[in-house]
Hints:
It is built from one helix and 22 strands. It has one helix spanning 71-77, and strands spanning 6-8, 11-12, 18-20, 33-36, 45-48, 57-66, 81-86, 92-99, 105-106, 113-122, 126-128, 134-136, 141-145, 154-159, 164-168, 171-175, 183-187, 192-195, 206-208, 216-223, 225-231, 235-236. Strands 1, 2, 3, 6, 7, 8, 9, 10, 11 and 22 form a ten-stranded antiparallel beta sheet that branches. Strands 12-21-14-17-18 form a five-stranded antiparallel beta sheet, with no helix packed on it.
Amino acid sequence: MGQSYFIWKNRDCRSMGVWLQDAVPIIRPEERVQHVEIPGRSGDLTQTEGVDIFNSYIQTATILVKGGMRVREIYNWLRGADYVTFSGEPDRQQAARIIGAVTLNKHSHNIDWWTGEVQFYCQPFKEKINNETVTVTASNTQIRNGGDVVSYPRITAKASATSMTVAMGGKSLTVTGLTSGSECIINSGAMEVTDAAGTTLLTKNTTGGFPVLTPGSNTVTGSGWSKLVIDRRERFL
């Protein structure tokens, strides 16, 4: 196996003189549920908060640092919030915040090395680092969500009329007040529509629900557009 590492704030830990003592585990987040006791009934009732609702979790990395020359630089790097990638899943990243103290102590067996722990408070879903877009030019086109849960795509749509409708994943959104040949951006995650430059908000001109992609195959339908460029924004447990 290759050397274990993590990437934080777009910097490989090894470039900072930091190594992982052990590979961090791959964690599947815990589903958010409540267990309700019913009087007179054995056991309990398990209630979920909804579909695909999972808890954030702490990922602990034990690090090794050779020498103490860059300790302050390392401390300033290992702070705040950003995206983290671990070597066990090198093609994926997840939003995280470093919590707790980062303390480096002399290694018990080798005084040239310092050791410590970094705690990443990770959001439950991971996403691909490099996403490939899908271009759709006709209604009733099939596209696939290869992720584990429902995703909220970002769609660049080219209008062929003054209004358009885009539907997928059981949701259908209509945008009005457009110019034929113009482009708009449908951001299902943010639940907003803007012009192509992203400077003018068009959400007030919409009706319906923002399109989503369920895991597996999805049919893209609609009218009033000649091309859709879809960033699927697949999410993984």
